């Protein structure tokens, strides 16, 4: 399986090498070597293990998912490292892990100086990671004679995995057709709105994967004088934060399913309310004297005194944080202390389960809040059986306990992650921001890691720790942490 993933990874590197070659870039040779090396190691691995039993049970599924992401990240770091555009392997690995986990945190200070081949590879890591390396792999696994249900259960985000089709392979194919189609549509619309084709395809891949890597130092703030581009990205960020199974039904014309879905309704109303609050504060109270003047963030100054501009930037940044896309149209940390705290809390939200977003996910919050309120009734009526209901169906106690365990574990990891950052000498605000953003796969954070800065200021150990938190968050804690438990390795 690792061999297959390396071949898959190397194939995409060759596409980036071709783009680099067409643009006559010096990086072509390094990207080509990286791709061929990945394919060679992958081919040798597959050949050496072809006689082994191809059986993947639940335990092997978790191992394949966790190891798959790590192997892909080490392989994906090669183009940066071999071309010497990122000479530190720690930095190259961080950038790659940030890409595959769709976090969007970067150590690059001058993105626009990167060769186009590497910029495309950077966005490709997002796009591959968006719907999950393993989900894509299982669409092709029948060719290898391996069933993929175990890996889909380990990889698919959220507490449940809705199916579009009884066969898991067909489900993966349908999701990827939708994912690919949406990417093409957004590319086309961004091109029409004024982006060149290269920027359009890169930003489409970053948007649909809720990744956040941009080809510009100023991120989406580069197009602050072109509202249409930002509104197109807003629409596709919202779509990317919606359950892809639900999006599939909507694409088939079954709109009623969306408005019957409890999570979607909360997602829609939540975005509306948070945007309304942010717009009001930005329009009336934003401190114009503190607006950033750094050309790397604001290539075209936004006008805070106009209602449309305030609304657009509020909606853009609310969606960028909730969907964990992490694009930047403005520095939300200077809008007001109230909004700074609100955006910090939003990092723990996440969008819909079954989307490409990171974070806790809205459905978990819904079930935890409902269960909390039902505890009042259970206290008054201790003998009554009062189940939590979601979408008018009772939720089993096992799922409720699993969600509560996940949330508690998430908070414990966040606190411990913050302590580790602070032990490295990083200040309080930056430590909290780094842990919340890395674990939630958001990207921009607070303090020294605010939207006007990047993660280059972290010490090497901090970058490795942040990479580990990104992996934990992307694979929703249990998939990785279960491997460290003694029970996982015991034969029962």
UniProtKB/TrEMBL annotation:
Which Pfam families does the entry mention? TrkH (PF02386)
Asked if the record carries the keyword Oxidoreductase, the reply is no
Q: Which UniProt keywords apply?
A: Cell inner membrane, Cell membrane, Ion transport, Membrane, Potassium, Potassium transport, Transmembrane, Transmembrane helix, Transport
Keyword Cell membrane carried by entry: yes
Location in the cell: Cell inner membrane
InterPro entries referenced in this protein's UniProt entry, alphabetically = Cat_transpt, TrkH
Protein family (similarity comment): Belongs to the TrkH potassium transport family.
Where this protein primarily resides, as one coarse class? membrane
Q: Give the species this sequence originates from.
A: Namhaeicola litoreus
**Name this protein carries in UniProt:** TrkH family potassium uptake protein
Residue intervals passing through the bilayer:
30-49, 61-82, 127-154, 175-198, 228-251, 263-283, 334-360, 399-421, 464-489
Q: How does it sit in the membrane?
A: Multi-pass membrane protein
């Amino acid at each position: 399986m690792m061999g297959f993933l390396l071949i898959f990874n190397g194939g995409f590197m060759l596409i980036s090498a071709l783009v680099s070659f067409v643009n006559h870039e010096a990086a072509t040779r390094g990207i080509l070597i990286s791709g061929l090396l990945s394919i060679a190691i992958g081919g040798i691995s597959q050949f050496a293990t072809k006689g082994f039993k191809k059986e993947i049970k639940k335990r092997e599924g978790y191992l394949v998912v966790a190891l798959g992401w790590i192997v892909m990240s080490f392989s994906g770091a090669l183009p940066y490292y071999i071309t010497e555009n990122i000479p530190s392997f720690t930095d190259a690995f961080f950038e790659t892990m940030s890409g595959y986990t769709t976090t969007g945190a970067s150590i690059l200070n001058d993105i626009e100086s990167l060769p186009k081949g590497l910029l495309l590879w950077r966005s490709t890591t997002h796009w591959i990671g968006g719907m999950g390396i393993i989900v894509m792999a299982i669409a092709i696994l029948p060719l290898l004679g391996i069933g993929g249900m175990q890996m889909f259960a380990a990889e698919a985000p959220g507490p449940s995995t809705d199916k579009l089709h009884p066969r898991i392979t067909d489900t993966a194919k349908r999701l990827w057709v939708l994912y690919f189609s949406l990417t093409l549509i957004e590319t086309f619309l961004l091109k029409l709105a004024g982006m060149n084709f290269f920027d359009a395809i890169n930003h489409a891949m970053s948007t649909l994967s809720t990744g956040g890597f941009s080809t510009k130092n100023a991120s989406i703030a580069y197009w602050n004088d072109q509202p249409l581009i930002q509104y197109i990205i807003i629409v596709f960020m919202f779509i990317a934060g919606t359950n892809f199974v639900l999006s599939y039904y909507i694409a088939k014309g079954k709109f009623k399913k969306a408005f019957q879905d409890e999570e979607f309704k909360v997602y829609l109303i939540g975005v509306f309310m948070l945007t309304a609050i942010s717009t009001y504060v930005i329009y009336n109270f934003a401190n114009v004297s503190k607006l950033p003047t750094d050309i790397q963030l604001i290539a075209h100054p936004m006008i805070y005194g106009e209602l449309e501009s305030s609304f657009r930037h509020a909606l853009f940044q609310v969606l960028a944080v909730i969907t964990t896309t992490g694009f930047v149209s403005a520095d939300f940390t200077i809008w007001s202390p109230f909004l700074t705290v609100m955006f910090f809390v939003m990092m723990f939200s996440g969008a819909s389960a079954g989307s490409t977003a990171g974070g806790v996910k809205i459905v978990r919050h819904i079930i935890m809040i409902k269960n909390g309120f039902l505890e009042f009734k259970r206290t008054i009526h201790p003998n009554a059986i009062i189940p939590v209901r979601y979408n008018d169906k009772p939720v089993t106690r096992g799922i409720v306990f699993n969600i509560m365990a996940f949330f508690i574990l998430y908070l414990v990891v966040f606190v411990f992650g913050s302590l580790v950052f602070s032990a490295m000498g990083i200040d309080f605000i930056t430590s909290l921001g780094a842990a919340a953003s890395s674990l939630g796969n958001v990207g921009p954070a607070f303090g020294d890691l605010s939207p006007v800065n990047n993660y280059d200021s972290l010490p090497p150990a901090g970058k490795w720790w942040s990479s580990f938190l990104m992996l934990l968050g992307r694979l929703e804690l249990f998939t990785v942490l279960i491997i460290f438990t003694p029970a996982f390795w015991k034969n029962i």
